[in-house]
């Protein structure tokens, strides 16, 4: 297999971190909230929200996220509660807009509209924001107004076939419900949200992560197959004849104490039963991967489901670094890969004829050099990952726990490692409509590396928890320094030209040897970017095969020194010596005459140089 060729480009960074003081102030204020503040109307509302959230396990939050539009026209970087929007027009070098949430949360989910003009994002409180590429917020929808009771696990855009004047987004919640949101233009040109309730029945229980392939109308979910669940918060409210959604704010003042007392009795009961007081009492089923398809009536049809071993719900005694659960369909829908919380990557082969799934072991192809070592089904090469995306239909781009980016061909197990020694954050996303176009965040900008006050050691970065359960704190905020980096697939000629343009001449010469390319382009660039001295004539100009180029340099180039000028003219006369006018030549082609005219010019220049030196230098 040929090693994938790609160009690495460094783009904008958030250095210096001008907004971090504001974030740290927010974190400090949040940490010092008093008991009395919770007794206010707003505080009681927050407590109610906490109870509403209590019916779910603790949610994992990403400190940093990337949202890339389908053709990479725009890229949004979310760090903490701030989103920075970058544009392809200036090579993502300068922010074209930014948005900062009033709450101290993070953005883990997001998607650009089909026309790449509006970004939809969800924060960890399940509040939706719809932001234009200019930074204008066109809609904000809270979880209460969205009328969902389960956490949002996916947000993606749809094509509106009826009109081009609105944006369609679909929200997927962990209970398997789908809800469509339409953001439409008003008559005055303003934009307002219009909700279209298009819920399906629960397609599967306890969804952990979700993806779709828009061209094939395929959807895939990693979920729990079955489970017995008792919602503690709902149980307590039901004893009072109420529900979470129907409970008025004033009622919470009167029943709050009773609920806490009831919860205390429940904890004692659980202790007596030697059970853990989780918000859910559950008998968990195994992790499943299910494949769905939208039919003509927009209903979801389950095509296939299989069971596999993967940890997607954090155990209480788990102490390792967490990764963010993720599932992705490959660009041509030949494979599906999913990353669990422990950093283990599971790969499945998709039969697009029968729409069935089967386990796929890295390097499973018969002619793979790794196949003999993988027959036992144990694939040690698929552990220790922090994030991934598809580079193309059979190559994965991954970030491992050491902060290294690698490209892995799953057919034969071969790897290509990025040589940049920068520590890369566990955030990888691709432009969906282009294969081989991936974005990642580096930990430190080039400027930042030279500033000791913002330097973070590699060891500290390795120990940083990029996926957190608790609130943001000042330690988290101190890590929110990033630089956008892109990897773009290139052909052999394109890669050769890039190496030359970056003046990586030795790498270009090695590349030319490997791929059988003409080295003239390297030598020409070396010559043109040199001092044009005597040594450069011997090293570069004399080795160039393109004699038309060489002769034009001898005629038109002016040496910086007397020796350089004489050497340049002498070399021009030497390579045209066999085309002297005194020598008979049957070839009267235009090429020969051009060489003779060039020789004549060089002779004239030599005479002028000698005359000049004789008059001015007394020679």
UniProtKB/TrEMBL annotation:
InterPro entries: ARM_KNTC1_1st. GO terms for cellular component: Dsl1/NZR complex. GO terms for biological process: retrograde vesicle-mediated transport, Golgi to endoplasmic reticulum. GO terms for molecular function: SNARE binding. Pfam families: ARM_KNTC1_1st (PF24520). Residues 1-22 are annotated as: Disordered. Residues 499-612 form the KNTC1 first ARM-repeats domain. SUPFAM superfamilies: Putative isomerase YbhE. The chain crosses the membrane at residues 252-272. It comes from the Eukaryota. Keywords: Membrane, Transmembrane, Transmembrane helix. This is KNTC1 first ARM-repeats domain-containing protein. It comes from Sphenostylis stenocarpa.
